[in-house]
Amino acid sequence: MKSLPPPQLDAIDLRLLNLLQHDASVSNQALADAAHLSAATCHRRVKRLRDEGFIEQQVAILSPQRLADALGWGLSALVEISLDVQTQEALDAFEAKAVQDASVQQVWRVSPGPDFVLVVQVVDMPAYQELAKRLFTDDARVRNVRAFFAVKRAKFQPTMPLPGHSPA
Prior knowledge:
Blueprint: H1 11-22, H2 28-35, H3 39-51, H4 64-71, E1 75-83, H5 88-100, E2 104-109, E3 116-122, H6 125-137, E4 142-149
Antiparallel strand pairs: 1-3, 1-4, 2-3
Helix pairs in contact: 2-3
C-alpha cells in the first residue's frame, strides 16, 4: 500500500491556524481581513484545514471557576493510573472506558511512570468517589491511583505554538 505524503502547511495556513486558535468565533470575513485574504480564499483554506484534520473541533471553553461560583460546586483533579499489566489489550480497554466517562475531560497515555493521566471535572468529593468506583475500584486491572485535587488554576492555554507566531 502506497503511503500518502505528509500534509503541508504554508505561512498562510499557519497564520489562519494561529488566528483561529485564539478566537474561532470570528466571522469568515473578519478572519480573511486579519489574514489579508479574500473571503472566498479564506473559507476554502479553513475548510481544507478542517478536512485534513488540522482543526479537530471548535468549542467554547468554559471557566470552571465561574461555573463553581455560579453553581456552588466544582472539583478538578489530575489522576495518575497504573495498571497491573501493560498489555495492549489492557491499556486499550482502560482507555476506552475512561474516554466514555463524561466526567473525564482528558485521557493521556504516558510513559514512564503511570500508564495514564486523566483530567477530571466533577461536582464534589462524593461525585469523585463515584467516578473512582466506576473507573478504578471496580476495575481489577487498576493497580494504583494517585489523585491530585486542584486548588488553583494558574494557567490554561489550549493554543499550540506555531512557527513564525509569537506565543500570546
